[in-house]
Amino acid sequence: MTLAHQTLALQTLGLSKSFGGFRANSDISLCVARGARHALIGPNGAGKTTFINLLTGVVPATSGTVRLLDEDVTRVSQQGRVKRGMARTYQINQLFADLTPIETVGLAIAEREGAGARWWSRVGQNSAVVDEAEALLTRMKLGEVMMWRTATLPYGKQRLLEIALAMACKPKLLLLDEPAAGVPEDERHDVLDSVEALPQDVTVLLIEHDMELVFSFADRISVLVQGQLFAEGGVEEISTDPRVKAVYLGEDAHV
Ligand SMILES: Nc1ncnc2c1ncn2[C@@H]1O[C@H](COP(=O)(O)OP(=O)(O)OP(=O)(O)O)[C@@H](O)[C@H]1O
Questions:
Q1: Domain for residue 150, yes or no?
Q2: Residue burial 120-138, b: 16+ Cβ < 10 Å; e: rest
Q3: Which SMART domains match (predicted)?
Q4: What is the pLDDT of residues 182-202, one digit of tens each?
Q5: Measured in angstroms, how far is the CA atom of residue 49 from the centroid of ligand 1?
Q6: Which of 6, 77, 175, 187 fits 88 for a cystine, CB–CB 3.0-4.6 Å?
């Protein structure tokens, strides 16, 4: 085993979140190895989105710790976590409808380089930014539509653009929030293929109900039920665990 495999990309220790008297996340201690393809599954309302919101700093934890690449980031801002290598996609489209993919990703790259708004009108003239944006969009199967207005893209392409946008931050840890949700059947395999083709050096934590994607993509699966970690293991272990089947698989899951 190499040193890279021994270090963790992400670790939570006793992470909890209460909304009033309701514990949406309860004492979650989770380790994600560097370079892992780790999936987080669980029934609706299990607390998966809350967990991602705690990881990214969208909501503060009630108690517990979040460590990113061996650094305690529990009290670091959302932007600070992005700067340290954590990026996420969202379940709901939050893209600029009137921009093209090349403008959207170009802007994110310029922002990453600290040039943000100053580059707004000049993104198209900066060849390094444009070259990187083109390469990223091509890898995400968006090369042919990179000059289209985002609002006119098929839904699956918009979901891919969300991932490209997160990848423009050059993350070390990428949090994918249901990338296949709502994608029509004829576009689904493009999304699955692109997720599987993400660079191996980027650690991925995937939240997903699509079990075909989870079982083909993940090397480790954690199951969340009623805000608590219920089970964790490899694909074989989780897919055949009768307790997991009883609470999740075969019920809510889109298998
Ligand atoms: N801001 C909030 N205030 C109060 N309750 C909340 C808040 N956010 C989430 N909850 C509650 O926490 C529980 C977990 O919600 P969460 O969205 O994290 O689950 P989930 O596993 O992501 O569900 P789904 O798979 O349906 O997206 C739910 O009962 C939800 O109603």
A1: yes
A2: eeebeebeebbebbbebbe
A3: AAA (SM00382)
A4: 899 999 988 888 998 899 999
A5: 7
A6: 175
